[in-house]
Amino acid sequence: MLETTSKLFNRLRNRESGEAFLNQEQTAPTCARVLREILTNARMLAPEWIASINISKSYGYQVLRGERTPGRDIILRTALALQLSLKETQRLLAVGDCGALYPKVRRDAAVIFALNQKMTLLETEDLLSSLPERSLFGKEI
């Protein structure tokens, strides 16, 4: 499990632990690693995740092995299916090298609203359709 930011700040305050931290090899969290961690915390198995966001088994397992990086809409579908918080969603988008949700973009604002209201993926699709905004199941631009 990764250390929290506050623990890292505390380690950097002390000379010995700070130097040890700076000298250790850093490995940035990957999208696959963060996603596997989220699935474990949600007690969701890979096949359940794959089915819940409607992706192919082969693609889903490639994502989980780190062979492919999911697109922004796949990450958003994951966040909605797993009822992630906005903070967790933004982290997953960041490690997936996708743009963060930005409230000045209407579609992003709708997704932020859906995450905050704990809407399901289907409810979010209905919301996007009513606005009208591009579906989370459509082709990404």
Quickly list its features.
9 helices; 141 residues; mainly alpha; 62% helix; globular
Q: Could you give the distance between the termini?
A: 34 Å
Q: Which runs of at least 5 residues are low in confidence (pLDDT < 50)?
A: none
Beta strand count:
0
Mean pLDDT: 90
Overall number of domains: 1
Work out the helicity level.
Answer: 55-70%
User: Helices and strands, in N-to-C order?
Assistant: HHHHHHHHH
Counting DSSP H or I runs of 4 or more residues, the number of helices is: 9
Main sheet summary: none
Structural class: mainly alpha
Specify Rg, calculated over alpha carbons. Answer: 17 Å
Percent of sequence in beta strands: under 5%
- Any idea what the shape is? globular
Quaternary organisation? single chain
What do these coordinates show?
The chain is an all-alpha fold. It has one domain. The chain is built from nine helices and no strands. It has helices spanning 5-13, 15-23, 31-41, 46-53, 57-65, 72-81, 86-95, 106-116, 121-130. Helix 1 (5-13) packs across helix 2, helix 4 crosses helix 5 (57-65) and helix 8 (106-116) packs antiparallel against helix 9 (121-130). The longest helix has 11 residues, at 31-41. The model has no long low-confidence stretch (mean pLDDT 90).
